[in-house]
Amino acid sequence: MKMLPFAINTYKNRTLLSLTTIFLLCLNVSFSQTNGTLTVTTTTSESGGPYKPKNIVAIWIEDGSGNFVKTLLAYAEERKKHLTAWKASTTAAGSPYNRVDAVTGATRNSHSEQVCTWNGKNFNQTLVADGEYKVKMELTDRNGTGNSAVFSFTKGSNPQTITPTNVPSFSNIGIVWTPITTETKEETTEPIILVYPNPVSSQAVILGVGVKSFEVYDLEGILKLRTNGNEIDMSTVKPGIYLIKIVADSGTYVKKIIKI
């Protein structure tokens, strides 16, 4: 049967529309960009250098191909060149020692638990595509390369918690990806943890279900407060920005609070 010209055009248009739809669906799958928060915690220790316990340390994100994405934490100034892996990664990205929106400071005089977060964006503040990423850590207490470690995780719509085995200079490691879903409040199971008021002058409250305890750290990773329950007395700390590590029934969370 011979098709009429208008029928041929209609068939072509429908075919083109179907192919376009398939292409867009594939594009959406390949380039999904889920908002969320990655929380990284670890306790540092010496690497055997002559300057211990003084140390410099960096924690950063790379993509699955090893390309630099963003620095999360960097305590290093004059001797930062000895964090050779971090230097190489940031330099390859065209931005040596990039520390945009990272927890930063000078050489540390001791070791303690470090807490930092990632919002899923690169150092240009662009939300990156979902997929496999790497948390990299490096620490040295010598004028040369020290210890480093690499841990993979998946950024996507599913939450992920990783507790790697201790490695030289890094122990008690926790890597938690918490996606922000677009489901309605009735449908979502994502817990909501809030700190109010923020900024705070003295007393604040952690709002959320199943809050058990919390710890307050300054931006150098030094523990300032630790208590059970959900009430915070910030009257004893100096004005500034602090990180609150919150332990709840649903998991561990890190929030920023400003003391005024």
Question: What does it look like?
Answer:
This protein is 13% helix and 42% strand. It is mainly beta. The protein folds into two domains: 36-179, no CATH class; 194-259, Immunoglobulins (Immunoglobulin-like, Sandwich), CATH 2.60.40.10. It has a five-stranded mixed beta sheet with strand order 4-3-2-6-7, with helices on one face. A four-stranded antiparallel beta sheet has the order 5-1-9-8, with no helix packed on it. A hairpin with a 4-residue loop joins strand 2 (56-63) and strand 3. It starts with a helix and ends with a strand. 29% of the residues are buried.
Compute the separation of the termini in Å.
82 Å
How many beta-strand segments?
16
Helix content: 10-25%
Question: Helix/strand/pairing class, anyone?
Answer: mainly beta
Specify the number of helices.
2
Numbering strands along the chain, what is their spatial order in the largest sheet? 4-3-2-6-7
Secondary structure: elements and pairs:
Blueprint (H helix, E strand, L loop, with lengths): L4 H26 L5 E9 L11 E8 L4 E8 L8 H9 L10 E3 L7 E6 L12 E10 L6 E9 L4 E3 L7 E10 L14 E3 L6 E5 L3 E8 L4 E6 L2 E3 L6 E9 L2 E9 L1
Parallel strand pairs: 3-4
Antiparallel strand pairs: 1-5, 1-9, 2-3, 2-6, 6-7, 8-9, 10-11, 11-14, 12-13, 12-15, 15-16
Short description:
This protein folds into two domains: 36-179, no CATH class; 194-259, Immunoglobulins (Immunoglobulin-like, Sandwich).
